[in-house]
Predict the 3D structure of the following.
Amino acid sequence: MDIKKLFSVEGKKGFITGGSQGIGECLAGAFSELGAEVAIVARGLDRARDTADKISSKTGKKVIAYKCDAASPDDVAAMTDSFVKDFGRIDFAICNAGICAMDAFLDIEPKTYESVVDVNLNGVFYTAQAAARQMVKQGGGGSIISTASMSAHIINKPQTIAAYCASKAGVVHLMKGMAAELAKYKIRANSVSPGYIQTELIASLKDYLKTWLELMPEGGRLGYPEDLIGTYVFLASEASAWITGADIVIDGGYTIL
Ligand SMILES: NC(=O)c1ccc[n+]([C@@H]2O[C@H](COP(=O)([O-])OP(=O)(O)OC[C@H]3O[C@@H](n4cnc5c(N)ncnc54)[C@H](O)[C@@H]3O)[C@@H](O)[C@H]2O)c1
């Protein structure tokens, strides 16, 4: 067995939603450095292009930016069409775009609640479905990886994010449902559930840091996007060929206590 090939993503082609910053940007850079061809999918084209250019000038690999609202089925269909025209096929899709609203359960407006579910759950549904349809068209095979959260498993405190937690729990179970239906096409669907990762998403929550660290095993720390690279690469590689419908929690031990 060629072990290096087993863990390789070289030559694989895939897109990353929410890829212009934070976790998505880090993953796009890592996959590109490992020889994959990637697309940065984001609502804002300028930042996505900047990120794509920065990565491709470092790695010398093909990186393209697409403007797409993950919560819009029409945008997602247009984006996957462009991806297939530009790259030829889809080997992996990372459904990672997400937002959070801090409104308390008793106060949250329907519009805010709906926007969280629209991006975090519906957006994952639309992008994963579009990728899976293309993978079936290609004759099967492929890996779909969605970014859920440890919030799918626990309720965070002290922040009030019931809608976020519910949307992420939905992502974990959506991947299981997809995994069951897509196994016959050799398409795998898994989720990754990060703990607190230092990105813009939690940048305004610095006051909570002390509480969060107290809730972790002694000596704990917040995560960096780089802490997630190994798992996403593994899930896109053949080394995880028999893993589907799984959720992998990466949280520095937060959820064990
Ligand atoms: N940072 C954390 O602590 C943490 C923990 C667990 C899970 N997550 C999840 O990780 C994912 C990435 O978050 P991050 O920490 O990098 O945050 P981030 O805010 O830096 O990045 C989120 C990205 O998603 C994009 N996005 C938002 N709505 C979109 C839409 N409708 N269509 C397309 N793109 C859209 C944003 O523009 C941004 O690029 C999210 O799903 C988030 O919920 C983050």
The longest helix spans residues 110-137. The pocket of nicotinamide-adenine-dinucleotide is lined by residues 17-18, 20-24, 42-43, 69-71, 96-99, 119, 123, 147, 149, 194, 196-197, 199-202 (CB under 6 Å). The longest strand covers residues 187-194. The chain has one domain: 3-252.
